[in-house]
């Protein structure tokens, strides 16, 4: 049957999916984690199984009836039939729930649940995967060793030998040769620098031209103006209120539904008729709440304290 697949689909939307007279699959949320070694794990939900939660909360049966286009009562009967088969098979073999986990009996004849852990039921982690960040590579620049054998660059004039005389023309000729050499070198390196700057300027100009062509907009002529009438919508109409209800029962007759409401109000509950289901039955709720926590607390109070039949409904 498709019940195992429907359980997996419901775990994406609900924290608890109860199989009547069998047990409940619960999800537990964990945040994202980064280890000191650079291993990143996205947020995820782990699945557990509690065999003590067997009361029908209506979530699985309602979803099964909606998917199979059958009545709520028919869905309950089919689920009960499948649960009976599960209990018989569990005595001798392992029950597998694809994407969720496995159920088996341990040495003490207690049900043991082994989650598969391959499916992340946290919708906030869609598209995120585990990865390991590579460590940063630091480059060290070795220090240059100072040359201990420094050459003395200072010119020390030779001592004039006594009695030697040099002509002043030789001095002027040497100064002239040095000057010409300096001028030639400056002209050569200066020309090389100017040529390099011209090439660089041409490359920048070409890049700017290509950029302007890519970003260019073309005048396609003027278009006739179009008048658009915009009607402002009140802010409260843009968003639908989300309610969380605890359902007491569904009635085909509106008179019976209203009678049930009056009875619950006398018992102290803020009961009301909250609309019709897919079968056209009138739903009667113990109360409607704006937060899931309030609805769940009321549901647990009714089931485990007052021993009343009730189930949880999220109204969109």
What shape does the CA trace take? elongated
Order of helices and strands: HEEEEEHHEEEEHHEHEEHE
Distance between the termini: 29 Å
DSSP strand tally: 13
Q: Which spans of ≥5 residues are poorly predicted at pLDDT below 50?
A: 160-164, 216-220, 235-239
- Spatial extent as radius of gyration: 42 Å
Give the averaged pLDDT, no decimals.
Answer: 76
Determine the fraction of residues in helical runs and give it as a percent range: 25-40%
Describe the protein's architecture and organization.
With 316 residues, this protein is of the alpha+beta class. Among the domains are: 3-132, no CATH class; 237-315, Sporulation related repeat (Alpha-Beta Plaits). The protein has seven helices and 13 strands. 15% of the residues are buried. Residues 160-164, 216-220 and 235-239 have low confidence and may be disordered.
